[in-house]
Amino acid sequence: MIPQTGGIILSHRAKDLSSMFNKTFTICSSVFLIFAFMSPGYADEHFPFLAEVSKESVNVRAGPNTNFEKVDKLDKGSQVVVLGRSFEWLKVQPMPTTKAYIRSDYLTVKEGQDIAEVSGDNVNVRCRASSDAASLGEVKKGTLVKVIGQVTEAGEAQKAASPGWCRLLPVAGTAVWIHQDFLKEVSADVPVSSLIPEVQWSSAVVTPTVKWQSVPVAQFPPKREVVETVSLQGKLQALPQAAGDDVHYEIIIDDKNTYYLKDFPQISRFVDALVAVEGTVISDPSSHAQDSPSSQKKSMYPLVQINKIALVL
Asked: Which of 90, 101, 288, 291 has the most C-beta neighbours closer than 10 Å?
């Protein structure tokens, strides 16, 4: 009887080829993983770190995907604190301009203060005053938040039974997202002043912490007679109708006193926020736009030329 040596040889060769393939696949997979973690953005990555926006008009989103809602927009050169990563998207601390809302019936406000305590469990902080808006994160019961205003449900008429919404300063523990292609790391050290501070009850009036943004003198208009120097703190709002060619904003103090503010670069970033302003009152508010149809309205309030402006933290 003739032995079937050919079949035995082929069987051994098939086993050898299979073993060689498995070893090659394992080696290639290991090399791929090594290079993946050595690629820019992943090697020795640490959090948090300070980053700078590298392109113009960068969208900020509520989640790590372009399908998530846009919640803010940043200019080139803006700095952000990066908290983490999800693939090609970086998790970022909300900016002072990022809007945040919690339903009023989930908050308990202490009388005489603009601080509120979260009274519900795992309450969503949303990017708009609507239950349909994207969530920026959840906060636990007992968390303290800073309230800067109250609004009704977006797109709905005010109702007696409607709880409404409170607009907040950025809340610790929440986050927004920016694609890694639009950010570059500038420092591994994040200043404490750049982090969202923990909100605490205050039994006395405390001078607000502000970060001043000076306006270059070269941007000021020709000199006018100055009546007085003022320090203001209130809510900055856009005027429904311009009060002049260079007057599009106002600051409301305690919902009573109002001042018009002369325009300056990036003032729109402060809209609907609580701000501190140092400036000078111009003696004739209407003299800079005599042909404006709204000149009669302009003369109702003093016009302030801003020297310094800052968000109240």
From this structure: 90
